[in-house]
Amino acid sequence: MARLRTPSQLSRSVFESLLDFLDHREHLEAILVAATDCDPTSSVRAFSVHVANKSGIDVDIVFRVLRVLSNTARSAEVTKELPEELVRELTEAIHKNSKWSEEQIGQWVEVKDRLVDAVSQIGPDSPLMISAKANFLTYERQNVLHQTRIITDIRPVFDKAAETIREMIVTHTLVVNYSGGGNPTELHLALDRTDIETLREQCDRADVKSQRLLTALEDTPWPTITYPESEEE
């Protein structure tokens, strides 16, 4: 959810997430009860798996509800507004900028006070907000990797007259998709065979270091998580 300052800042995705919340509002109280009995995790999505296991509610439903709760609580914290003030701004934005039906607006009016109460119960050190903060800190970097691919091809080496192929060279290209400052970027890097071997060794080494750290920190008073946690129930 956008950090609210004026109703015009709300994006289409915010309105869609609020509609998801409306569709599953009957589970709000049960999800809140289960959430208080769960330990923090690496993200809201991973936390939703724990809450789903506690409550017996489908994990996708839990995630849609907790996403709105955590985003609303985060927005209230950033803008230094009370939850009721923020929800009032949301209500104004829904009336002015959304394309909701009268039935949907009526459902929002009925549930908005319950949302205020729920957000008021969520402190910054609650398991839900610690999980949300963990996800935020993980990607608080100058550049964030989104996808990598290695493309393999062959390149011919011709004679001087460009009439005869004298040999073929197997080549690799590492394609890196990342974002920096919100701008998606694609980078192509030439790799040789030793580069491939080095990358494999570095990945294996990173896995070993992760396992060593998890073992070394087993007796600390806080959980140590390799991000991201498995989201399987």
Any chance you could write out the topology, listing elements then pairs?
Layout: H1 12-23, H2 28-35, H3 44-55, H4 59-79, H5 83-97, H6 102-121, H7 127-138, E1 143-158, E2 165-180, E3 183-191, H8 193-216
Number of strands: 3
The geometry reads as: elongated
Going across the biggest sheet, name each strand in turn.
1-2-3
The N- and C-terminal alpha carbons lie at a distance of 26 Å
Q: Give me the Rg, rounded.
A: 24 Å
What's the tally of helices?
Answer: 8
Mean residue pLDDT: 90
Q: How would you classify the helix and strand content by structural class? A: alpha+beta
Protein architecture, described:
- There is one protein chain.
- The protein has 233 residues and is of the alpha+beta class.
- Helix content is 53%, strand content 18%.
- Helix 3 (44-55) crosses helix 4, helix 4 (59-79) crosses helix 6 and helix 5 (83-97) packs antiparallel against helix 6.
- 21% of the residues are buried.
Question: Which key features would you list for this structure?
Answer:
single chain; 233 residues; alpha+beta; three-stranded antiparallel sheet; 53% helix; elongated
Brief characterization of the structure:
This protein is an alpha+beta fold and 233 residues long. Helices cover 53% and strands 18% of the residues.
